[in-house]
Design a protein that fits this description.
The protein has 683 residues and is of the alpha+beta class. It has a domain of 256 residues: 3-Layer(aba) Sandwich (Rossmann fold), CATH 3.40.50.1820. The chain is 19% helix and 32% strand. It has 13 helices and 38 strands. The strands form 9 sheets. It has an 8-stranded mixed β-sheet with strand order 31-32-34-33-35-36-37-38, sandwiched between helices. A 4-stranded antiparallel β-sheet has the order 1-2-3-4, with no helix packed on it.
């Protein structure tokens, strides 16, 4: 009986630690951040009893990550590791009979599809192509799989591999282009396109269904297997494609339908000049749902859930989430009824809604109060999902059909988190100049003591159409920013997503008016409301648009002790003429620099460089084609010429984000040293 009482108290202590955040442990370090195991991609078995998922761990010695497949019962219990081979083991997908997991592994030297019998036995390779493959999904009948692979249009995988070999062996590395875009995010266009393939589930014999296609399927670089789906009888596949023409200046992704035997695809969404994505057929195959945007050229237009009968290619789609006035991040069909389980960007968290498609019932919120992802239902209605919070890394959870009785199924990070002093993100609101309600987050430092003053790190998010969420972030992690003894303030100003589309729209063509005012008012509110914040020791940091805003702040005010600008825009004219996704500046600034030169000049931090006074750390990656690295160099040059204390950290092998483990350590060491030095803490 005593043992049961002790165990009960331990369980209660764990629950209280989740609720209160602080565990009385030590401050977090960058080594701790890299030690966190990333838990993702939960896939429920057809009978609803098991969940396959992925755990990714950093290998510091190899300077890379390894991923493995795991299995856990939907009723709980000890998870079982399914793969032990180092390297890539990702994207588990159940066969319709529940007996086999298809997954992607590089254990043979390249990324190929492997099949793992769930009742025991070794995985076997299914595909043996001379190029990498990704994103396998099963047909409803289990006789085929669809996947994607990059090929040169009108060539076979073998011909693609041979052409790549010739390029690698060529003494000249010159590239020639006759159109845009020539590079994207962090990759040059080599002429290859991601194509949709099907293969036999027994032999692996594969066929390119769109050999002549000149656009990426799914759209690069963030599309995935949610962008293609078999129809009910497995004879056709709906897929999302980039524009076939003018991809640099158009957001018009479309849904297409192609026979699994090949042939000319049919455009299902030609009526919509804006984006369509993530086609999914209902369990009975009668309905087709997808995400749709309505305004062409605006990548931050609200994603709305729509559906129509799968067999009727001409009927007008019915919008079923528009009344939420919140963007849908992802969704899945309920396996037993015509409802959708949708993850919704909702006021600083990712919530989960049940969305009926037929009748007039309104969406019903199921899960809130944390950040959720990859939500789905089992056959008995149980919800399976990923949950994280600012002070808790992601784990797999289950909940009852109505969202109650939420319970973790996995505990991969419990031992590590128990050692750390992590505080939760506390929500606050304030009134903007126009009376609008604006939301923000406050995170206390480790070993917080009432009555003591703490320096403040003011975080500014990117996008600009993005948001700070109550989530565990693998890069811009609240707890790690707080670790040197800082309180964190993070505001979701105008332009942020999840607060209504009008709130998001307010930033376009006005990057530094209302937005700047929201940020400064939010900081003033926090300093006035929370007496432990030291108004004399406030620093600011931001990445991408956040870096732009840091650069703008440098020319507008000297209220900050120091600034940190990561991948920030310095000069809008040169930025918008050299970035890759041209629809972005065209929408945000009403055209290219030569179309609206006055607007570009008025909103460019470079225009106010003469006012720079605040010590600034500038960070950029050489492979950042979203915000080219000359922006960071120009910012540093201006600071140096103005005689402002500054430091430039440049990563030759990174893009918009710093991803390699060794580089992440350098990034955090530079950031922490800069923070401590300028807050008067021991560096």
């Amino acid at each position: 009986m005593k043992l049961l009482i002790v165990l009960g108290l331990l369980a209660l202590g764990s629950t209280l630690a989740w609720a209160s955040g602080s565990t009385g442990g030590r401050p977090m370090t960058v080594d701790d951040l890299l030690a966190v195991k990333s838990v993702s991609d939960p896939q429920v078995s057809p009978d609803g009893t098991l969940v396959a998922y992925v755990v990714t761990e950093v290998d510091r010695e190899a300077n890379k990550s390894n991923s493995s497949l795991w299995l856990v019962s939907t009723r709980g219990g000890e998870p079982k590791r399914l793969t032990t081979t180092p390297g890539t083991n990702t994207h588990p997908r159940w066969s319709p009979d529940g007996r086999t997991l298809a997954f992607v592994s590089n254990r043979s030297g390249s990324n190929q599809i492997w099949l793992l019998p769930i009742d025991g036995g070794e995985p076997r390779p299914l595909t043996r192509l001379p190029i990498d493959v990704s994103g396998p999904i099963w047909s409803p009948q289990g006789d085929r799989l669809a996947f994607t692979a990059e090929v040169y249009p009108n060539t076979t995988p073998e011909e693609t591999a041979e052409r790549d070999k010739q390029k690698a062996e060529s003494q000249s590395k010159a590239r020639t282009y006759d159109g845009l875009m020539i590079r994207h995010w962090m990759s040059w266009d080599e002429g290859k396109r991601s194509h949709l393939f099907v293969c036999d589930a027994q032999t692996g014999e594969a066929r390119d269904l769109i050999p002549h296609w000149t656009a990426n399927v799914p759209p690069a670089p963030f599309g995935g297997s949610s962008d293609y789906a078999f129809n009910g009888d497995g004879t056709q596949i709906a897929f999302t494609s980039e524009p076939l023409e003018n991809a640099a200046a158009s957001t018009n992704t479309d849904l297409w339908l192609v026979s699994t035997e090949g042939g000319e695809p049919l455009n299902l969404t030609a009526d919509n000049p804006a984006a369509d994505a993530q086609p999914a057929f209902s369990a009975d195959g009668r309905l087709l749902a997808w995400l749709r945007q309505q305004r062409p050229g605006f990548e931050a237009d609200q994603w709305v859930l729509v559906f129509r009968p799968a067999a009727d290619h001409t009927s007008r789609p019915v919008a079923v989430s528009q009344g939420l006035d919140r963007p849908i991040s992802s969704f899945r069909w309920d396996p037993t009824k015509p409802h959708l389980v949708a993850v919704v960007d909702d006021g600083g968290v990712q919530t989960v809604y049940d969305v009926p498609t037929l009748g007039r019932s309104a969406p019903v919120q199921l899960l809130a109060g944390a950040n959720h992802a990859d939500a789905s239902r089992t056959q008995d209605g149980t919800l399976i999902f990923v949950r994280s919070r600012a002070h808790r890394p992601a784990e797999i959870y289950r909940a009852s059909a109505d969202g109650s009785e939420s319970t973790p199924l996995t505990h991969h990070n419990d031992d590590l988190i128990a050692q750390l002093d992590l505080n939760p993100a506390e929500r606050f609101e304030f009134e903007a100049a126009d009376g609008a309600k604006v939301q923000g987050w406050l995170v206390k430092p480790p070993s917080f003591e009432a009555g003591k003053k703490y320096p403040v790190m003011f975080l500014i998010h990117g996008g600009p159409q993005g948001a700070w969420h109550d989530e565990w972030h693998a890069r811009w992690n609240y707890a790690l920013f707080a670790a040197p003894g800082f309180a964190i303030v993070a505001i979701n100003p105008r332009g942020s997503t999840g607060f209504g589309q009008a709130f998001t729209d307010a930033i376009s063509k006005n990057w530094n008016g209302q937005v700047y005012d929201d940020l400064m008012r939010g900081l003033d509110h926090a300093l006035k409301t929370f007496d432990f914040l030291d108004s004399e020791r406030v620093l600011a940091a931001g990445g991408s648009f956040g870096g732009y805003m840091v650069n703008w702040i440098a020319g507008q005010t000297d209220r900050f002790r120091a600034l940190i600008s990561h991948a920030g825009i310095f000069d809008l004219t040169s930025m918008n003429a050299t970035t890759e996704e041209l629809w972005f500046p065209i929408w945000e600034f009403g055209g290219m620099p030569w179309d609206t030169p006055e607007l570009h000049l008025a909103q460019s931090p470079s225009t106010y460089a003469r006012n720079f006074k605040t010590p600034t750390l500038v960070i950029h990656g050489a492979l950042d084609f979203r915000v080219p690295d000359m922006q960071g160099l120009a910012m540093f040059t201006a600071l140096q010429q103005r005689g402002v204390p500054s430091r430039y950290v440049w990563f030759p092998d990174e893009g918009h984000w710093i991803l390699k483990p060794a580089n992440r350590v350098v990034w955090w060491n530079e950031v922490h040293n800069w923070m401590k030095r300028h807050a008067g803490l021991t560096p």
